[in-house]
Amino acid sequence: MCGGIQYQDHKIYFPQPDARLPVMLRHRGVTWVIWGKRKNEGFGKFPNGGWARLDSIKAGKWKPWHPRPILITAESFMEKDHDKQSHWITLAPGMAIQALLAERNGEQRVYVVTEETLPEYHWIHDRWPRLRKLSDKRAISTKE
Length: 144
Prior knowledge:
Blueprint: E1 4-7, E2 10-13, E3 20-24, E4 30-34, E5 51-53, H1 54-58, E6 68-72, E7 76-80, E8 86-90, E9 95-104, E10 107-116, E11 127-129, E12 131-133
Parallel strand pairs: 5-10
Antiparallel strand pairs: 1-2, 1-7, 3-4, 6-9, 7-8, 9-10, 9-12, 10-11
């Protein structure tokens, strides 16, 4: 389900407290947004976890958080297999990771959008980040 992302000289892992992901702005700059919500944060404004299933977004389950599609710029992402071994997957040039920006009371969090894994990688995990071309303007709608 994408437990880590590498961007330039940063390796970001979801379990890290206050982990932030590089969100692409319209002008191709980057801003850093907190990645999801950890269970140890207690009761809060956002759902636990760092991922949003594409089918749950389409079903409207994220509407209370006013989701907006965004892109995470990265060179690679990490998945752990069933034996807890890490596998780093390199993104093809011009690709980014689809995410959603959730908002509540002026606070924002980013959640990686997941879908079913490609057949050739299903042995690693059954969920996978949704990948998008950087030229897909529909996937970028963050404030600048």
